[in-house]
Design brief:
By secondary structure, the protein is mostly helical. It folds into two domains: 189 residues, no CATH class; 245 residues, no CATH class. The protein contains 20 helices and no strands. Helix 3 crosses helix 6 and helix 15 packs antiparallel against helix 18. The radius of gyration is 22 Å and the shape is globular.
Length: 472
């Protein structure tokens, strides 16, 4: 624990983990990001939409079929008094059961032809689920063991495999959609293999070591998080289903590819959240906890807002580079998705605080409220204004989830200049609207200037922290 350490040491510990994950993941994610032109030139909008729908289906069922046990694996692994062998064995038990259940689900979907766009991809979706499930278990267990460097290296390996196999399967062998699936499956399998060897996971697996009391406590914690995971999925993927059903799979292909630019911010969010999860749990209950939480929230949110504003301006130039042929029109859906990513990050930063308290019910209710609002707003707005309605609905519902979580966290976090944060988000909303509907760059430049002025105190703090870290 951080007991007896200064606020500075706690923040430096967080920065160290962020730095490791940033070096390991961000540069590699950029390389995958640059492969978007390959996807959009080789695959049709329908093929890309089918792939995205299949992956979304697998990731939706994962927390349900596993009872979201991987989150409990991470959280309970950080409790030093609990036997790690029991935790890992419990996690593997539920992952194994979920694989069987998922196979049955895919068989049923094929029989009733519920999702006609992906019904012929059953074997690929099944293999994707198996590789995804095992990889997620190992990532969360590694995080619980604080093996941050190993997590980062596993991410780099997965990215390298993705790049090589995408080029091989799509350009050389011309396997099309099947090759795209093979690439994703291999990347996750090899990443999981690396983590298995590095943490020597076989030393933690012993079915005889499963403690019924520990399993019961883990399930009490994780089961409410099923709603949280499904809620997050709905907020990020329900729009694709609504668009696919109301406007067609090709339209979903456009919406899906528009998520590729916001993926830059999502990558940042993932890095910050992974490092923050460890610090939030370790820090909980110590002196000045709420102040440390608040300072960290403000620091990360400002970085995310700056990246969002910059990328909104670059929406069309990046689309020219990344989106080939008929995919180019997807640029207009990017700005509101960027804003949504910022709000999701804010919610994501509050989640680990609730996790540290083991208050999974609060996370559950925020997800349920956000999910219901998202589905209703998506149907209404997609019907009224088409694909853009889905992006606006996603942004609004991201804020709803944040607001519910902020209320639940309460006094456990003290955020200075909270009014400034709200004003910044509103300015980003205006900038997203201007870019999507007016495309007047001078207005956006003015908005960015106002953003800098409003956040000048926070910007000065960031430069001071960076200077202090490098000097010391």
């Amino acid at each position: 624990m951080f007991k007896g350490t200064s606020m500075e040491n706690r923040f430096n510990y967080l920065l160290k983990n962020i730095g490791v994950l940033m070096i390991a993941n961000f540069s590699s994610k950029i390389l995958v990001f640059l492969l978007v032109p390959l996807y959009t030139s080789v695959l049709s909008t329908t093929e890309y939409g089918s792939y995205d729908l299949a992956v979304s289906t697998a990731t939706l069922l994962f927390p349900v079929l596993t009872l979201n046990v991987v989150d409990a694996v991470m959280r309970f692994s950080m409790d030093y008094i609990i036997d790690k062998k029991s935790i890992a064995s419990i996690g593997l038990k539920f992952i194994s059961i979920s694989v069987i259940l998922f196979g049955i689900c895919i068989w049923i979907l094929n029989c009733i032809n519920l999702l006609s766009g992906i019904s012929s991809l059953g074997i690929y979706i099944f293999l994707y689920y198996v590789s995804y499930a095992v990889n997620q278990l190992l990532i969360q267990f590694s995080k619980g063991l604080e093996r941050v460097k190993d997590m980062g290296i596993a991410g780099v390996i997965g990215t390298f495999v993705t790049i090589v196999t995408n080029i091989l399967f799509l350009l050389v062998l011309k396997l099309g959609l099947n090759g795209f699936f093979f690439s994703s499956i291999l990347a996750q399998m090899i990443s999981a293999t690396y983590l298995t060897v590095r943490i020597k996971v076989w030393e933690y697996i012993d079915v005889k070591k499963i403690d019924k009391k520990t399993q019961h406590e883990m399930l009490i914690y994780s089961i409410p998080l099923i709603a949280t995971a499904v809620g997050w999925w709905i907020n990020s993927a329900a729009d694709k289903y609504v668009v696919a059903f109301m406007l067609g799979v090709a339209s979903n292909g456009l919406l899906s590819v528009s998520y590729k630019i916001p993926q830059i911010i999502n990558t940042l969010q993932g890095i910050f959240t992974q490092a923050w999860q460890i610090s939030a749990v370790k820090e909980y209950g110590e002196e000045e906890t709420s102040k440390f939480y608040g300072n960290t929230f403000s620091f990360i949110n400002l970085l995310m807002c700056a990246a969002c504003s910059f990328l909104i301006v670059l929406s069309r130039p990046l689309a020219h580079i990344l989106y080939a042929k008929e995919f180019y029109v997807a640029w207009q859906y990017v700005p509101f998705l960027l804003l949504s990513s910022v709000l999701n990050c804010a919610s994501g930063l509050l989640g680990p605080i609730l996790a540290a308290k083991k208050d999974s019910k609060a996370m559950m209710w925020s997800a349920i409220i956000g999910a219901v609002a998202n589905i209703i707003m998506n149907i209404i707005l997609v019907y009224l204004i088409g694909i853009q309605g889905a992006t606006i609905a996603t942004a609004i519902c991201s804020y709803i989830i944040y607001a519910v979580r902020k209320r639940a966290v309460g006094k456990d976090i003290q955020i200075e200049d909270y009014f400034t944060i709200i004003v910044t988000w509103l300015l980003l909303f205006v900038q997203a609207f201007v870019e999507s509907y007016l495309s007047i760059i001078p207005i956006e430049v003015v908005i960015m200037a106002i953003l800098v002025i409003v956040n000048i105190k926070g910007i000065n703090r960031i430069f001071f922290k960076i200077k202090h870290v490098f000097i010391h």
